[in-house]
Amino acid sequence: MAASRDSFENEEAEGSEGSQASSGVQVVLPSDPSAPAPLCPHGPTLLFVKMSQGKQETRKFYACSACRDRKDCNFFQWEDEKLSEARLAAREAQNQRCRPPLSRAHCVERYLMFIELPLVQRKFCQSCQQLLLPDDWGEHREHIVLADVSIAQLRRPSRLLFPLENKKTNAQYLFADRSCQFLVDLVSALGFRRVLCVGTPRLHELIRLAASGEKKSNIKSLLLDIDFRYSQFYLEDSFCRYNMFNHHFFDGKDALEVCRAFLQEEKGEGVIMVTDPPFGGLVEPLAITFRKLIAMWKEGQSQDDSHKELPIFWIFPYFFESRICQFFPSFCMLDYQVDYDNHALYKHGKTGRKQSPVRIFTNIPPSKIILPAEEGYRFCPLCQRYVSLENQHCEHCNACTSKDGRKWKHCFLCKKCVKPSWNHCSTCSQCAVPDHSCAHPKSGCFICGELDHKRSTCPNVGIVKRANK
């Protein structure tokens, strides 16, 4: 699951977190953490604050956790705003209207009826993205209907459903078969028996296909995804509708307990989480959610195993490395380039700046992960990990330093390797893109205005927070 690459060039150069961070919008903790956040159709909202360069925090507001564009979810409420009973009732009515047309139990009931139908009666409405029972046919007579839906097609719902390609909301860029098969093979080679698929529907499909195939893989999978359409194709123990930006299970406690049981099965042994969040989302709420899933997994661990970590593959663009490692210091980034079927730019085999920027971040030691030599990866004995062919070991940095698949160059003034297209700027005293503007820096601290650090590491952050209380 990914988002637009339209702004990737700027994000990469500035090290920003997407349009929200580059405009100064940050996620913050509410003044009263015990008070429940107001609800929108996507579950509990998040608290944001808009920062201005060199100025203190402004008024805080609640907004949708999943949608960055208010055209997709127009929820907005000031943190200190008191709402009338009429407005609260209108909001609840709006949330009810936005719910899926069928309940989870109803979807399961229909699915079980659908698979019992003879092939000639199995139909799928492409206009409504819905499996049809015979009683539904009349309502969909004027729609585009796919007939003779096979069991094999039902096992690959991501190929039946149209991807949601709203770039700012639920952009679904699905793994290409190459990357998906690599992940399945890697999970198997590492000895995992269960995979929690968070926003990775195609990986979930492939794991289940392998389990039902001739070789009968023993790997099980549970899919957590915000797309309610998958409710039509899976029983309750295979799919939970879930918002990864606020750890919200749409079907309540029953779905949460399904996830808990899956993570804690076999005392938590043999499970890995693989997640592919929308790239337009902020890292911080994702990290908070993943920590909650980790805590859920740890509940099934004994105190002697408290030092263990839930194995994770977090798939995200390489220029978020420092931000991800800030929340998960044990993570490292693999050189493997993940590509997607329905995105023109995320394609394996492209060169230079056209290569996919998507990588795998993991807390599994990279020395244990073998990348395919036939796809252009080699083992570096000095780094003790697999790297891309163009990623040459730098004797000055004592590391294979490239992040984007190209050969990087060492800058002795910066004392580090940089992208081959970057030049050292004497005005900025650092390497930057050739056409950057020294007069109007695009990054820095929103609290004090200094350019050598971000807001999260500002020495004045404590002063500002105390002043705002």
Automatic annotation (TrEMBL):
A single Gene Ontology CC term: nucleolus
Domain GRF-type as annotated: residue spans: 40-82
Gene Ontology MF annotations: nucleic acid binding; rRNA (adenine-N6-)-methyltransferase activity; S-adenosyl-L-methionine binding; zinc ion binding
Region spans: Disordered: 1-28
Pfam family, any one: Zn_ribbon_GRF
Top-level division of the source organism's lineage: Eukaryota
Keywords recorded for this protein, A-Z: Cytoplasm, Metal-binding, Methyltransferase, Nucleus, S-adenosyl-L-methionine, Transferase, Zinc, Zinc-finger
InterPro entries: DNA_methylase_N6_adenine_CS, Mlase_EEF1AKMT1/ZCCHC4, ZCCHC4, Znf_GRF
Transferase is among the record's keywords: yes
GO biological process terms held by the UniProt record: positive regulation of translation
Function as written in the Swiss-Prot or TrEMBL entry: rRNA N6-methyltransferase that specifically methylates the adenine in position 4220 of 28S rRNA. N6-methylation of adenine(4220) in 28S rRNA is required for translation.
Protein name per Swiss-Prot or TrEMBL: rRNA N(6)-adenosine-methyltransferase ZCCHC4
Organism of origin: Jaculus jaculus
Gene name, Swiss-Prot/TrEMBL: Zcchc4
